[in-house]
């Protein structure tokens, strides 16, 4: 009969739902262990589940799909009062979870979820008021009018918000700083600056769509920061970003890394043979514009990266380029990356070569990440540069290795000292290999 067919179809669809919920539950259960083992394939496969939630609230993805599944089952309850009570109970639990966890990566998405949940609770209450009186034409008309007015207000509010946001973007810049850099040589330094500047900093090397980043630099960035490393000028994308900043009159500053030299006159004349010009020609950048931009680079205000750097000098450099807010002389960034007090015994050290700015920036960034992930309050993390003695209280060392480490005898001596201690845990990290 038709009823039997309907039951079979409902059973098949319900089994698919149960299988999907089981897969989501298994993903949430194994996510911390897989992430700790560095299984990138698992993270990519479950990106639909975890990409929208914050890392510390990854379990909300399972709660979200289970809640939706239970809400869809509420209309099957035999009593209208039970239907209304079950739906309101699920929405109340969901609203409590939203206020407790703030799970979505975007704060605006969390606010939208809270507003939609409250709207559904209101609609459920109104539906419960009419349910006891029976289904009449008047009740249907009032309910339909109320739903139409609510959704009309929501659509109108979204449109007004979009228009207001577009008008405000015309008067202000979305990003305070746009960082143009080489991902291979100065990527860690750029991420340190983003840690210092927060959401107002955009790194151009992290985007795959170059056209979008050029539009972001020209139309949405208040200032541009150039990390001038050895291979900066030879990268077509970096130079295209500099041309974009010059053409759009974006205020530009620079940080010159050790080894960087201003391009010579012969290099400017032979630039077309040293770099693939087809990438630049497609974007309408001529050879004359490139030569004018390279000459314009000489007038850009730059700050040198210290050759013999430490954590304090790196923080001082960042305070010069990106001054901290006037309300507070010490920023959260300074607290995150500053070295711990000497009185507290160190248990974990990040060992970096003082003669390589790439490893120094990576070491400061790695230490800031480890401080944020550390769950043991007794664990003291620090950073040690070559040329300093290794404290006796250290139990483990993360050694940052780079291609030129063999040529630096002082850093090699420190590595030898670390390896000779049998009770010391050593974790090598290869940079730019």
Rounded to the nearest angstrom, the distance between the terminal CA atoms is 69 Å
C-alpha Rg, in Å?
29 Å
The largest sheet is: 5 strands, parallel
Total separate domains: 3
Summed over residues and divided by their number, the pLDDT gives a mean of: 75
- Give unreliable regions as ranges: 326-330, 374-379
Question: Structural class, from secondary structure content?
Answer: alpha/beta
Percent of sequence in beta strands: 5-15%
**Adjacency order of strands in the biggest sheet:** 2-1-3-4-5
Transmembrane segments: 6-29, 84-102, 114-136, 142-164
Keywords: Membrane, Transmembrane, Transmembrane helix
Structure description:
Helix 17 links the parallel strand 6 (348-352) and strand 7. The chain has helices at 2-37, 40-45, 47-50, 60-73, 80-101, 107-131, 137-171, 183-197, 210-220, 236-247, 265-269, 271-274, 277-282, 287-297, 311-321, 332-337, 357-373, 409-420; strands spanning 175-180, 201-203, 221-228, 252-256, 301-304, 348-352, 381-385, 396-401, 425-430. Mean pLDDT is 75; it is low at 326-330 and 374-379. Helix content is 58%, strand content 11%. The chain folds into three domains: 2-134, no CATH class; 175-304, Toll/interleukin-1 receptor homology (TIR) domain (Rossmann fold, 3-Layer(aba) Sandwich), CATH 3.40.50; 338-430, Rossmann fold (3-Layer(aba) Sandwich), CATH 3.40.50. The termini are far apart. Helix 1 (2-37) packs antiparallel against helix 4, helix 8 (183-197) packs across helix 17 (357-373) and helix 9 packs parallel to helix 10 (236-247). It is an alpha/beta fold and 433 residues long. A five-stranded parallel β-sheet has the order 2-1-3-4-5, with helices on both faces. It contains 18 helices and nine strands. Keywords: Membrane, Transmembrane, Transmembrane helix. The chain crosses the membrane at residues 6-29, 84-102, 114-136, 142-164.
């Amino acid at each position: 009969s038709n009823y039997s067919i309907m039951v079979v179809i409902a059973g098949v669809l319900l089994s698919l739902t149960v299988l999907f919920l089981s897969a989501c539950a298994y993903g949430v259960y194994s996510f911390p262990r897989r992430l700790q083992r560095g299984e990138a394939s698992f993270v990519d496969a479950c990106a639909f589940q975890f990409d929208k939630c914050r890392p510390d609230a990854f379990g909300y993805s399972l709660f979200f799909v289970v809640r939706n599944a239970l809400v869809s089952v509420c209309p099957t309850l035999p009593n209208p009062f039970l239907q209304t009570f079950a739906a309101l109970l699920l929405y109340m639990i969901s609203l409590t979870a939203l206020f407790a966890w703030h799970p979505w990566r975007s704060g605006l998405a969390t606010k939208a979820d809270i507003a939609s949940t409250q709207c559904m609770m209101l609609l459920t209450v109104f539906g419960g008021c009419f349910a006891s009186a029976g289904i009449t034409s008047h009740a249907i008309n009032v309910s339909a009018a109320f739903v139409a007015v609510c959704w009309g207000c929501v659509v109108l509010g979204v449109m007004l918000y979009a228009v207001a946001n577009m008008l405000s973007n015309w008067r202000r810049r979305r990003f305070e700083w746009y960082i143009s850099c080489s991902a291979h040589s100065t990527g860690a330094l750029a991420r340190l600056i983003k840690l210092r500047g927060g959401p107002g900093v955009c790194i151009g090397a992290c985007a795959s769509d170059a056209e979008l980043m050029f539009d972001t630099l020209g139309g949405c960035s208040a200032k541009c920061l150039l990390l001038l490393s050895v291979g900066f000028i030879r990268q077509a994308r970096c130079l295209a970003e500099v041309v974009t900043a010059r053409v759009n009159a974006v205020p530009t500053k620079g940080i010159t890394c050790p080894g960087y030299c201003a391009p010579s006159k012969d290099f400017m004349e032979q630039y077309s043979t040293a770099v693939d010009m087809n990438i630049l020609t497609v974007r309408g950048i001529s050879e004359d514009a490139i030569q004018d931009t390279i000459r314009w680079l000489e007038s850009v205000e730059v700050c040198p990266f210290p050759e013999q750097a430490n954590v304090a000098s790196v923080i001082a450099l960042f305070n010069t380029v990106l001054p901290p807010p006037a309300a507070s002389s010490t920023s959260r960034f300074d607290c995150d990356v500053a070295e711990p007090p000497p009185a507290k015994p160190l248990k974990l050290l990040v060992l970096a070569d003082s003669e390589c700015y790439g490893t120094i920036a990576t070491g400061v960034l790695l230490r800031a990440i480890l401080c944020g992930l550390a769950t043991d309050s007794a664990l003291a993390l620090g950073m040690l540069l070559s040329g300093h003695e290794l404290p006796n209280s250290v139990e483990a060392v993360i050694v940052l290795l780079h291609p030129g480490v063999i040529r630096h005898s002082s850093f090699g001596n420190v590595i030898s000292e670390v390896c000779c201690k049998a009770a010391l845990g050593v974790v090598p990290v290869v940079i730019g290999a």
